[in-house]
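Quick question, first post here. What does this chain look like in 3D?
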Amino acid sequence: DEVAWLVGIDSYKIYPWRGDYFRVNLPYSVKKLVYPVIRPQKSHGLGVHLTRDGQGRYMAGPDVQLAASKEDFSSGEYKKDKFYEALRFMFHDIRKGDLSYEMCGIRPKLRAPNETQEKDFVIAQDLPGFINLVGIESPGLTSALAIAQKVKIILK
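> Answer (accepted):
Ran it through. Tokens below.
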């Protein structure tokens, strides 16, 4: 939205949602991603889930919380109890000591806090030769090459 504002386009509003992650030390191996069952339209995310990082270590997260700002990268250590409870639902033998705070990220959502329907990201030529890429969150990185191809087609 801020880049669009620089060229006079004020039709986009980004709502920053932060997602925190905790490292999880499991006493056994889990080969797949583990997601909780979510209730559609009740959450702004998929719920705390278990995944692995590039080094094969287990990570829990992200949760979803409206951020104070687009630069709110403060520690989310205070969420440890919440993450512990979410993980206990999936892994009954996990202990609170198995979790340690790792990091957070900010999702640029177009969906306002009071809205119930998710909004997809925007790829639009709002001015000749100016392509807006707004609200690109997950799976934005996975889709980066397809997004680039779409922009190339628009510019031709």
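The chain is about 20% helix and 25% strand.
The mean pLDDT is 90.
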